[in-house]
Backbone:
């Protein structure tokens, strides 16, 4: 049987030396043998609780042995995992429960205390206040074989419902199969050249597909993960990276902004740091150049993906970082990535079209949403909703989400292009743009900005002057809001939905 038909958990854990280190936490570390025991123990709990193939299982916890063991066990037992962020609001949790109708839940104790009234109908297991305790997981001597045969699951069977972040709309459960995960994992390992010697500093949450992909790829290769949730204390995090000899780091733009703006990254040496992965949004060109200057011997992989593609769709090889600056590269191994016009034909260089994707990693659609599935998955392809162009070499450049454009003075303009221009102001760490109604232009620009440091008295005026010099008149922000930080979802991505709901005092531009 080929790997593509396997059960994900078997695929990840098979053939590993039991004594090989797999996971490093602040309060302990665990080998592959211990991780396998934890997984087997939880499988036994599920089977003894009359779990049946295809049952949905809610998983709500911070990154921990509890999360990893529960996730692997659910997939191993032929069930469908539904990972959710620990900070999920009650109304959203209710919607997910109504949609997925789970029978079981693995929920961190402190999360359960907040949502016990909502989760009470489920058969629940918790970490008992110790997410990295082997004893709390009941893994000491449980034998899944004593409860009957484990349901055969793999290939096109569903492994997980990965709910999208919902930054631009209602979260939807993406149906991810065992085949999808294995195909994407194989591709990522290939282009990153991962081996058992790699050790990843993991700050991304595992409930987010980018974070889950780190778990998949490093377990498959026999590597290890250093799990650390202290990203708001970047100096401690950097020290931990050096101490544990991490070879890799992965993050979204907000992680890199914090590392470069609020830490001693420039003063440290990382002799083992082989590569960095950046995805989850566009990191401005000035930041990419700065990062490369700080870490000249570290390979920087700019990547692009979607939950609907399991995780990854494209990457820009590090050697093209300067010559193809701003590009997301080309499709990863096993993925056909194209930019098509409204007639379904590939665009020529300079023309604009929608990115489409085809490959074994493409999900079958959204759980319980046939109309939305039909709209985004057409003719066997994923239609990403991202508008882009290509250059003469076939490298792809994203312009913006199809729904993240403004129409100012009759012209359709990308929010991302305005944000990139505003961020050329060296006094800014972050910027995000939305549209507001305007009697003259139809829609005007509203900018939310985060200064690099203390805000000088004339900051607002100097930023307005910069915008007037560097933007067409109709794109100069009508309103500017200065924030300490942009609101972000649990994956660290900017939430424009939250920006649109803000009622803050504004400064007329």
Residues:
């Amino acid at each position: 049987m080929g790997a593509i038909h396997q059960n994900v958990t078997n695929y990840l854990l098979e053939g590993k030396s039991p004594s090989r280190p797999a996971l490093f936490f602040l309060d302990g570390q665990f080998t592959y043998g211990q991780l396998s025991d934890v997984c087997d123990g939880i499988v036994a709990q599920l089977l003894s609780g009359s779990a049946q193939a295809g049952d949905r299982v809610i998983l709500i916890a911070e990154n921990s042995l509890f999360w990893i063991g529960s996730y692997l066990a659910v997939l191993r037992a032929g069930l469908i995992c539904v990972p959710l962020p620990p900070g999920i609001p009650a109304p959203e949790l209710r919607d997910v429960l109504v949609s997925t109708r789970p029978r079981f839940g693995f929920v961190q104790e402190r999360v359960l205390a907040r949502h016990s009234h909502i989760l009470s109908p489920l058969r629940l297991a918790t970490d008992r206040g110790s997410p990295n305790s082997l004893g709390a997981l009941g893994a000491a001597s449980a034998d899944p074989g004593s409860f009957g045969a484990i349901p055969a699951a793999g290939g096109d069977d569903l492994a997980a419902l990965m709910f999208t972040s919902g930054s631009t709309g209602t979260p939807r459960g993406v149906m991810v199969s065992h085949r999808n995960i294995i195909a994407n994992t194989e591709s990522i390992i290939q282009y990153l050249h991962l081996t058992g010697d790699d050790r990843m500093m993991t700050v991304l949450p595992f409930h987010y597909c980018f974070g889950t992909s780190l778990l998949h790829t490093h377990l498959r290769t026999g590597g290890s993960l250093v799990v650390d949730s202290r990203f708001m204390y970047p100096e401690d995090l950097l020290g931990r990276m050096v101490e544990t000899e991490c070879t890799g780091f992965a993050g979204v733009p907000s992680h890199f902004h914090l590392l470069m703006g609020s830490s001693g990254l420039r003063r440290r040496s990382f002799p083992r740091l082989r590569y960095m992965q950046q995805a989850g949004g566009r990191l401005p060109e000035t930041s990419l150049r700065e990062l490369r200057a700080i870490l000249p011997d570290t390979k920087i992989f700019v990547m692009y993906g979607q939950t609907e593609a399991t995780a990854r769709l494209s990457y820009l090889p590090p050697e093209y970082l300067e010559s193809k600056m701003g590009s997301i590269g080309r499709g990863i191994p096993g993925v056909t990535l194209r930019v098509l016009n409204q007639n379904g034909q590939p665009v020529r260089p300079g023309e604009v079209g929608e990115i489409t994707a085809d490959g074994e990693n493409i999900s079958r659609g959204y759980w319980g949403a046939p109309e939305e599935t039909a709209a985004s998955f057409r003719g066997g392809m994923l239609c990403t909703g991202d508008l882009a162009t290509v250059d003469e070499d076939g490298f792809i450049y994203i312009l913006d989400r199809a729904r993240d454009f403004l129409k100012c003075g009759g012209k359709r303009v990308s929010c991302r292009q305005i944000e990139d221009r505003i961020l050329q102001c060296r006094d800014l760490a972050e910027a995000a743009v939305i549209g507001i109604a305007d009697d003259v232009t139809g829609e005007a620009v509203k900018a939310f900005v985060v200064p690099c440091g203390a805000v000088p008295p004339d900051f607002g005026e100097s930023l307005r002057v910069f915008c007037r010099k560097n933007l067409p008149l109709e794109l100069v922000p009508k309103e500017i809001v200065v924030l300490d930080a942009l609101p972000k979802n649990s994956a660290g991505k900017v939430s424009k939905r939250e920006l649109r709901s803000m009622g803050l005092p504004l400064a007329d531009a």
